[in-house]
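Name: Phosphoribosylformylglycinamidine cyclo-ligase
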Amino acid sequence: MSQNTGASYAAAGVDIEAGDRAVELMKEWVKKTRRPEVLGGLGGFAGLFDASALKNYERPLLASATDGVGTKVDIARQMGVYDTIGHDLVAMVMDDIVVCGAEPLFMTDYICVGKVHPERVAAIVKGIAEGCVLAGCALVGGETAEHPGLLGPDDFDVAGAGTGVVEADRLLGADRIREGDAVIAMASSGLHSNGYSLVRHVLLDRAGLALESRIDELGRTLGEELLEPTRIYSLDCLALTRTTEVHAFSHVTGGGLAANLARVVPDGLHAVVDRSTWTPAPVFDLVGRTGSVERLELEKTLNMGVGMIAIVPQESTDAALTTLADRGVDAWVAGEVTGRGEHTTGAALVGDYAN
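Structure predicted for Phosphoribosylformylglycinamidine cyclo-ligase:
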């Protein structure tokens, strides 16, 4: 009897059994993110969230966001470290949602791989689940897609979408900001998840630095520095809204501090941030110095040491700083909101960084 040599999904490079194994491995991590409003378990066609929990709101507004982590995934791939990139994903999604004052509720993920390695996929989901716990949201589902021929066997990418809720009369944003408000900066944990195309081009491609090489000024290897997880500010921001008056937040991501801050500053006002109020971490100088990158280019690409901004009334400054300090967040008054004056954009950095 001749052997069947017909085409099959497995022969095309898709391993359904490996996918099933990955789902089994990730279940324990997803379970750790469960909120009381979540119905059912992992494996359904859709994640379920009991919206009756929102009946206590007078006028609930749902906030949603979607994002990825860019080319930082290539650093994870090269280092064979997969359980931190999920923190980055949650931060990129949920810290966008909290900017309007919304409480993160739930998140879904999408993991695309060239070949399913169950333990590797489970490690990615582990990181996402840990990030969801830090953000206070549930991971209600996701998708792992195997794309042989499109991606190499070790290549992968991640994306996610999230939903939060805020009471309509507590919505934060530009319409609350007033002249004289204080601009409070919250320290980043490092590069976070933006600008990695520039960072990789400068440090790896042009300078030829090895990820495993120890960099004295960083106090660790280059790879360890580049994989430092993005700080998740969601619960810190929500704590601020409970303990003091907050007018707006700005999540500092692609485009840098000034451009992201300008997104929440209303017409007629201007936010001025004084560089002398902080010293960027050594990794920012390393990128700038190694690649001869001009400061303006660095500032519109990287966060330069500030991951989140809170704009509060001057009289709320002390309370805000106390709350953040109690939560272990390094924060400081970095500037203020002024009249437009001579400025033509919504936000600007002035002065020189502290040494």
